[in-house]
Amino acid sequence: MANVQVIQRHAHLASAVKFEFVNGREGKVAKAVLTAISNSRRGSGDDRSEEATAIQWTLWAKQAEHAAEYLGKGSHVNIVGRVRNNNYQDNDGVEVYGLAFTVDEIDYLDSKAEGEARRAREGAGDPPAAAPSAPNSSRKARSERQPAHA
C-alpha cells in the first residue's frame, strides 16, 4: 500500500502528548505520540447523528519537540499526514494488522493565551519570559532575506 494522505480538521487532543527520545539511524531522535479526536455530523433534523473519530498520530524530530512543548489535552489542531500499513508478526507467530499515522504538517489553532492557560492548568507553570512563541504551523519559516511572496 502506498502512503495515503489523511487530513484531520478541527480536532482536539484527547490527552497529553507522549514524548520520548528513541534510537534512530543517526543517534537519538525525538518522538511524540498524540491522539486527536474530531467529530463528523450526518443527516438533518431528527435523523442527525454525530460520530467521533480518534486517530493516534506520530510526530518526529523538531515537530515532536514543539508538540510536546506547546500542546496539551484539549488543544485544538488541524493535521495533515499519511497512513501506511503497520503489519507484523507477534511473538506467537500471529499476523497483526494495523495502520500507522505520521504527521506531515500540524497547525496549532489555539491562541497563545489559550495555550498558556492550558499549560498553567496542567502544572507546567508560567513559561519563561524569553520563551519563543508557539509556531502556527510545522511549515518551514522564511528566512529574513527571503521575500514575503516566496
Largest sheet: 5 strands, mixed, barrel
What topology, given as strand order, has the largest sheet? 1-3-4-8-5
**Count of beta strands:** 8
Number of domains: 1
Unreliable sequence segments? 125-134, 140-150
Overall 3D shape: globular
CATH top level class name: Mainly Beta
Counted by DSSP, the helix tally is 2
Which whole number gives the mean pLDDT? 84
Instruction: Report the sheet-strand fraction.
Output: over 45%
Terminus-to-terminus distance: 34 Å
User: Helix coverage percent of residues?
Assistant: 10-25%
Q: What would you say the CATH architecture is?
A: Beta Barrel
Radius of gyration: 18 Å
**CATH homologous superfamily grouping:** Nucleic acid-binding proteins
Order of helices and strands: EEEEHEEEEH
Q: Which fold name corresponds to the CATH topology? A: OB fold (Dihydrolipoamide Acetyltransferase, E2P)
What is the SS-derived class? mainly beta
